[in-house]
Amino acid sequence: MQELSVRHLLGIKDITPQDIQLIFETADNFKDVLNRPIKKVPSLRDITIANVFFENSTRTRLSFELAEKRLSADVINFSSSSSSVKKGETLLDTVNNILAMKVDMIVMRHSSPGAPHFLSKHIPANIVNAGDGTHEHPTQALLDSFSIRERLGEVAGKKVVIIGDILHSRVALSNIFALQKQGAEVMVCGPITLLPKYIKELGVKVETNVRKALEWCDVANVLRIQLERQQMKYFPSLREYTLYYGIDKKMLDSLNKEIVLMHPGPINRGVELSSDAADSHHSIILSQVENGVAVRMAVLYLLAQKG
Amino acid sequence: MQKRLIVNHQLLEIMVMRLCHQLIENHGDFNDSVILGLQPRGRFVAQRIQSTLATILGKQVPTGLLDTTFHRDDFRRRETPITANATKINFLVEGKKVILVDDVLFTGRSVRAALDAMIAYGRPASVELLVLIDRLYTRHLPIQPTYVGHQVNSLQSQRVLVEWKEQQAEEDAIWLITKTEE
């Protein structure tokens, strides 16, 4: 008999290795459910979940919505672009209005780091952080580790490099916490302008040469270069980034070893990953998407038990 | 805690053998029949039934494991959460005669959940229920077993424990446990 040590999933920093293990074991069972002829269980049929997205998202919201529907929860979607937030309503008022409609759980994405932490102190519902600014994206990190475990058998002892825009990435931070809690070695790799100054304090290796990073690792998790930030001069040009940090099939083949290639999506084909690398046998990108639903089902199911 | 032996290993062996012969009467060569053991404790009964049938019939009857955790009606109502178990069904349930197998039938709620969970794998031709122990007068739902090893009249506060060698017990046995106040 096990349960999560937390009432909310605000970040990987707050949960224990045992929590991660429990989420993975539950996700294994949900993955089995997703491969049945009837891909639905009635576990959350008396629960209403609101997906509150103050920032645009397609795949994360779809993945959560599908996970909620597979668990038979009632789902409502809220996006700030077409809401009263535009009229000046506060975050707390917006969420309290949603809760007044008898909503039990909130899945929230917000551009401000710490927004779900703030909310958790003021409202009674369970909260799942679906990304808060450049801070954390816990379910993405969990599904990434789950996918590594699925491909390599275990996460402990594996060498994982996170490549790209570490500075602006919530995926990177949550991944570092998740991988370290499971006993993996973590390296970050990218242009020096995209590596935060504090990064070594998190106990990770730092590398600026992508080839050296790939030679070191068992798993390469390649992050998206956010094209909108390209104008902010973190690196001279996209073409130069691709030249120094882009990964293609030729480079992977020249390593003379098997590595696992991951990407949280959406991929800029031809920028951080070439098409032949993204579609190669090294890549588990589509497994990550599939596992995302199972892992999010597990998180929602286990948090619902905590009332 | 008082622990009273209600079925010893010899009687349990005879019970399993008798249940297998009853199954053969209804299912013949088992060409259209499959066994589903309910997780977690029904798996040991199902495996024992399968191996005994194999010695009698000389063939392995398809046997799977069905977990009902996500289909239970007491989710969020229990004091302690239930951890899910693996479901392993490597055959089609569609159109088959399904024999659900569990160790103890108490309120009937697990069996209700099992019927719900099983439907996700297809529409069976028929469903029967086999239990080692039928606790009388304790049902919350109108569910009755087709095959019964032994009937027990017990109090709500009592518990029936089935122990198997496979679970590192000294020998197979079924106990009636009564909690006594210290």
Automatic annotation (TrEMBL), chain A:
Record-listed carbamoyl phosphate binding positions: R59, T60, R109, H137, Q140, G265, P266
Enzyme class: transferase
Lineage, top ranks: Bacteria, Pseudomonadati, Bacteroidota, Cytophagia, Cytophagales
All residue ranges annotated as the Aspartate/ornithine carbamoyltransferase Asp/Orn-binding domain in the record: 157-303
Keyword Transferase assigned: yes
Protein name from the UniProt record: Aspartate carbamoyltransferase
Keyword Transferase: yes
Gene3D superfamilies the record matches: Aspartate/ornithine carbamoyltransferase (3.40.50.1370)
Role this protein plays: Catalyzes the condensation of carbamoyl phosphate and aspartate to form carbamoyl aspartate and inorganic phosphate, the committed step in the de novo pyrimidine nucleotide biosynthesis pathway.
Biological source species: Pontibacter korlensis
Residues that hold L-aspartate according to the record: K87, R170, R224
EC number: 2.1.3.2
Subunit structure: Heterododecamer (2C3:3R2) of six catalytic PyrB chains organized as two trimers (C3), and six regulatory PyrI chains organized as three dimers (R2).
Biological process terms in GO annotation: 'de novo' pyrimidine nucleobase biosynthetic process; 'de novo' UMP biosynthetic process; amino acid metabolic process
GO molecular function: amino acid binding; aspartate carbamoyltransferase activity
Residue ranges annotated for the Aspartate/ornithine carbamoyltransferase carbamoyl-P binding domain, each copy included: 7-150
Pathway in which the depicted protein is active: Pyrimidine metabolism; UMP biosynthesis via de novo pathway; (S)-dihydroorotate from bicarbonate: step 2/3
Family indicated by similarity: Belongs to the aspartate/ornithine carbamoyltransferase superfamily. ATCase family.
Catalytic activity, reaction form: carbamoyl phosphate + L-aspartate = N-carbamoyl-L-aspartate + phosphate + H(+)
Keyword entries, A-Z: Pyrimidine biosynthesis, Transferase
From TrEMBL, chain B:
Domain Phosphoribosyltransferase positions: 6-164
One Pfam match: Pribosyltran
Source superkingdom: Bacteria
Organism: Pontibacter korlensis
Name of the featured protein: PyrR protein
InterPro entries noted in UniProt: PRTase-like (IPR029057), PRTase_dom (IPR000836), PyrR_bifunctional (IPR050137)
